[in-house]
Amino acid sequence: xxxxxxxxxxxxxxxxxxxxxxxxxxxxxxxxxxxxxxxxxxxxxxxxxxxxxxxxxxxxxxxxxxxxxxxxxxxxxxxxxxxxxxxxxxxxxxxxxxxxxxxxxxxxxxxxxxxxxxxxxxxxxxxxxxxxxxxxxxxxxxxxxxxxxxxxxxxxxxxxxxxxxxxxxxxxxxxxxxxxxxxxxxxxxxxxxxxxxxxxxxxxxxxxxxxxxxxxx
Length: 217
Fold this sequence. Notes:
The chain is about 70% helix and about 0% strand. By secondary structure, it is mainly α. About 10% of the residues are buried.
């Protein structure tokens, strides 16, 4: 369950959930009042930290209680190590433990970036393969192809920073056509390359994975 908030708040809620689960597991065969007293102590310690709201804490507790109940009913708790053994495992160096929450978040971010980059490169290569016949048809020497193919990458940056048929996109395209990097290129051919790119982009952009760099509204 995603928990909004700053890093310290997130870590406090993660630790809170772990402690709740540990108490419930430790008191499975204990009187209910024993469990409730230990849960109260965990709640009180979280409250004293003054890092998270009562609403956020309640959401985490509700999720942990439901998770524990489902695991208990499915018999998935019986394979867990005894409390004393679990404590020994928890004290092992990090390299022998499951990744920390921050490490999992970092791995998740890297995977998002990797998926995005793979999709971007695949799309650019696809459009590039369509541009090459245009260059050959126009009689552009191969030693000049690179200048036109670089336009495909430039169009990618224009596309992700502007809306279709907007004044901003039109201005970005016009600025690119007169940029020093386009010197010596055929402006009309460059425009055809850009039109091809944006047409393909609008057709396929919905298949791209979420942009990890995009600003959230």
